[in-house]
Amino acid sequence: MTYSPPKFGENAFNCPHCHAYCQMDWSELRSGSFAPGVHSATCMRCNKSSFWRAWVVHSPGTPGQRLTELIYPRLVTAPPPHLDLPETVLPDYEEARSISSVSPRGASALLRVCIEKLCDHLGAQGGTLNDRIGDLVKKGLPERVQQSLDAVRVIGNNAVHPGTMDPDDVADVCNSLFALVNVIVEDRITRLKMVDAVYATLPEKARAAIEKRDAAK
User: Fold this and answer.
1) Which of 112, 143, 158, 193 has its CA 20 to 30 A from that of 169?
2) Can you tell me the distance from the alpha carbon of 76 to that of 84, in angstroms, rounded to the nearest whole number?
3) Which residues pair with 24 in a beta bridge?
4) How far is residue 49's CA from residue 57's CA, in Å, rounded to a whole number?
5) 14-34 average pLDDT score
6) How many whole angstroms separate alpha carbon 152 and alpha carbon 213?
7) What torsion, rounded to 10 degrees, do the Cα atoms 75, 78, 80, 85 define?
8) What is the pTM assigned to this prediction?
């Protein structure tokens, strides 16, 4: 799932309100002839606006440098949740997104909670999260999904223990952890739903013949 973070002046990006990738209608706010340097970008899907400030900084001997910032809503650069993310996991994921830019350590710890709940959703058995991931591996979990789960588990755990992981490293990798959670959902939930939906369209006689074939093995 590709994510394009909001950026001043861009014609399209993922809306900070509805999260959809959509065209933006830009306008500058004015009061008569006065322009305070505030711009709005209205999403063509949800019709909500984000507000931006733009100003120029002048330095001696150099051209003015234009700076911009998103002033509403607060910028969230983490990827939005996968559409098939279980409802039991969604609140923790969204809370992690809401603090990711100000507390990558806290967001990483919450993402670890997300994969704990994902493992429960997938029927994993075991006392610790490490044990539950191991149980899923025994049941045929693909290696790449196992690596994704363990990456979020280890980084989420190390992020909150002083001296275990450099805070700058946590900040650098935090958004990737959101992407890994979505990869897990895509592989373990979305793809299986698609297979089930297509298989269900087979004629009943064909499905009965398949079941009879497999029962004979």
Assistant:
1) 143
2) 20
3) 43
4) 26
5) 86
6) 41
7) -140
8) 0.67
